Amino acid sequence: MTIPGPPATPASTATPTSGTHTYTCAGGTVIPVTYARDPNGDQTATLIVEGSTNMLIAEGTTAGVTRYSFPSDGSHFTWLIGGNTGTLLWHNGTNNTDEPSQSDCRAR
Predict the structure, then answer these.
(1) What rounded mean pLDDT belongs to the chain?
(2) Is 34 exposed, middle or buried (0-12, 13-18, 19+ CB in 10 A)?
(3) How many other C-beta atoms lie within 10 A of the C-beta of residue 12?
(4) Each residue of 4-51: pLDDT tens digit?
């Protein structure tokens, strides 16, 4: 299964690395995200999804898209962000697959 990533963004639109940004997704879901560095120097994204706070750690950047995930073999959210557009995935720890949760999330 191919997981859709954020669409390409103009080079002038940088992926955020600090501050709080609010994203509105295709279905109308609003996701606030705070980007920061933790005490260990890791880049983090803290998302509020479905009423719960999820702190994710940057795993790397490929083709301008940064992947934030929870370092666990269990189920958790994964946030893909490129420029001002994100995609929220649900990582199913049982079968080790990523399933789309929210797409076309755009910073307001």
Answers:
(1) 88
(2) middle
(3) 6
(4) 555 444 433 577 888 999 999 999 999 999 999 999 999 999 999 989
- Look at residues 1, 6, 3 and name the one whose alpha carbon lies nearest to residue 104: 6
pLDDT at 54: 96
Residues 33 and 21 sit within 8 Å (Cβ to Cβ): yes
Long-range contacts of 58-65 (CB under 8 A, 24+ apart): 61/15, 64/8, 64/9, 64/15, 65/5, 65/6, 65/15
Structure-token pair, residue 25: 């997704």
Q: What is the DSSP string of 91-104?
A: EETTTTEEEEEEEE
Cβ contact 68:44 at 8 Å: yes
Q: pTM for the complete prediction?
A: 0.83
Rama region for 89: left / alpha / beta (φ>0; ψ in -120 to 50; rest) = beta
**How many other β-carbons are positioned within 10 Å of the β-carbon of residue 37?**
12
